Structures are given as structure tokens and as C-alpha cells.
Amino acid sequence: MTRVEVEYCVPCGMLNRAQDVSEAVLKQFGEEVDEVALVTGDDGVFVVRAGGEVVFDKTEDEYDVDAIVRAVRPYVGASA
């Protein structure tokens, strides 16, 4: 099963965004994912990884929860 990791900047106040992404992934994939983890960071980081691969990085992509969930989809069940 797949581990999804949402690394977010604590000082920047990105917890709400991180929670929104993790909730959306859990709603979409439920028990198909092994874990959705919130990982604290700093320096403006907001990165989503699925199966160890970066699927979203705010420095390169526009924040869109639905797009992030779509980016996670190919990794769900890939390691099963």
C-alpha cells in the first residue's frame, strides 16, 4: 500500500492546507492508502509525496487540492 506524506511549513501557517490535502486523499482513497502523514517543516515548504515520489511542490505547482489528489492516484495500490 502507499504512504502519502504532506510536508508543510509550520511558521508559515500551512497546517490548514496540509489538513485539507490529507483529508481529500483519505476521502478519495480510504483504505487504499496505507498512511497519510503530516510532516512538519519550515522555509515555506509545502510538498506532497506518494510512494516516496514528489507529486506536488508549491515552488513548481499551483495549489489545487483536486489536482494533488489526481497526482496521488497513480501511486495508490502501485506497491500492492
Automatic annotation (TrEMBL):
Keyword Oxidoreductase appears in the UniProt entry: no
Annotated keywords: Redox-active center
InterPro entries: Selenoprotein_Rdx-typ, Thioredoxin-like_sf
Gene3D superfamilies: Glutaredoxin
Pfam families xrefs: Rdx
Highest taxon, organism lineage: Archaea
Xref: NCBIfam families: CXXU_selWTH (TIGR02174)
Protein name: Putative selenoprotein
Origin organism lineage: Archaea, Methanobacteriati, Methanobacteriota, Stenosarchaea group, Halobacteria
